[in-house]
């Protein structure tokens, strides 16, 4: 199958016959004949250059990677995995692993704590009470001894919240995607996902052994093309809010294409559940398409500030996946303490719609602050705001300066996003004050202006 | 040591997704394709406008599958490997030298090519024996100086070879998906026709005013 269209024409031509041989001065980057082949600067390499390597020793890539990492870590990669010394609140204490100082009171735009629930006193009290009753861990798989009364109730409450017949709780969002996709789809089936789908969706596709295809981001006509020509079972997977771009899918159009091809539709609302929709049920609620989506997936680690994942849908779907979702079946169940905190956080999210109101007000405020500063933010319409730097070579330098200016925000570059699509991913919380938003935006704009990202 | 230096004014390279079974079909059994995503390998389409070399000025068009490089110690570790399965040049002299020296397989007939540059885009149209082969374009991002270390894999009879290639010059790369490609029903690209190859590049490379240096072949 070919997808080729017609190229355009009518441009100015430069014929090969008109080439001139230029002198050596026109080639400032020429390599002399005597130079041995040496790799360019370490920062021109990235993780992908150490993922594949031919040879006979399974450890062959370890030493080159280690040597590369030693060079690039102090040059910027240290900005990842910085240890926090405080709760993921709107201000955090972060250890600078380059200077070994703890930087206190940084404005936090890096955590997923969209509703500010992870450190709420009510949540912490629920967790403490569960520790007293159940201890630290669940000590078993959900199907054996790991399910407590708390787990059962959380699943029921999630199903009720999502207005679905049933729900199934997973130990992580990652395992929810992997277990659901691989639990349903088999070799010979077709899974089609948006090209920006999360790694856990892709890993689920791989594990399922189904034929995998990816359609261009949010392009319904390409989804239509990718679904064509397959007679067997088909599953389409999209996200509610795309985690690197902050945009949302055109659900009605996607549903129409799925119906045309007889494909089932799954939506991962990891970043949109509990914040989108009049009742917080997600983008499917917000776009009035809840009943048209077959599988509603979400996580507990973002807006609820805890840990874990879930799917919600029909009794039959949940019953089947309870038996065939290996990532859940063969994992230890969530700690009862975590589950207790999640139940309380869910209760707060349901009973305090003003949290969502405050979040969207904060998002509008930040969007305006960034727009006034001339900062490009892509197509985001959500609480995930990408600050599009598009400077792969200097994003770490900018990140270091923003860090020193008192803001905690994650730089994102290839391969997490495409080449020349580097950005800072900003997460807004309902808990941010207006003063924090203004102070943080001012610091970011100040740094970006120094680099010419905005005027 | 270097065995060939080729100064170029323009180099255009675009990476397209292709189905992994199709990539495996053009690779020898001892090479595996790199997958950019599950079940999607990488087809590289490259055109260079060489202005100065031992064999004079010429144009080269090359179709390759991206493969893992042989691991080397840090400092000599190549960013990627490529297996050229279809190539063509505008001069017989260039074709003969590169085929003899590197064992790349070339179309026996000359190709002709146009590099059509507009403000932010370069389009390459290539044809041979009066028939179009490919028409593709890439667009520019930010320009910077760079040097890439790559490995090329070739074969001659039962012997397998790899060569190290260093490409230096002004360079822009991005993944904004603004490029295009049209493949025409030409015998040169018969292995690609009717295959699942994307019509737009997921990665667009554009070199200017640089040098391609080949180091000697190593049997492996």
Overview of this structure, please?
The complex is a heterodimer of chains A (455) and B (220). Chain A has 455 residues and is α/β, with parallel strands linked by helices. Chain A contains 14 helices and 13 strands. In chain A, helix 7 (251-261) links the parallel strand 6 (234-239) and strand 7. Residues 1-34 of chain A have low confidence and may be disordered. Chain B is mainly beta and 220 residues long. Chain B has a single domain (2-219), classed as Acetoacetate decarboxylase-like. Chain B is 8% helix and 59% strand. The longest helix of chain B is centred in the middle third of the chain and has 11 residues, at 92-102. The model of chain B has no long low-confidence stretch (mean pLDDT 93). Chains A and B meet through helix 1, helix 5 and strand 5 of A and strand 1, strand 3, strand 6, strand 7 and strand 8 of B.
Which architecture name of the largest domain in chain A does CATH use? 3-Layer(aba) Sandwich
How much strand of chain A? 5-15%
User: Please, how many helices of chain B?
Assistant: 2
The Cα radius of gyration of chain A reads: 24 Å
Give a brief description.
The complex is a heterodimer of chains A (455) and B (220). Chain A is of the alpha/beta class and 455 residues long.
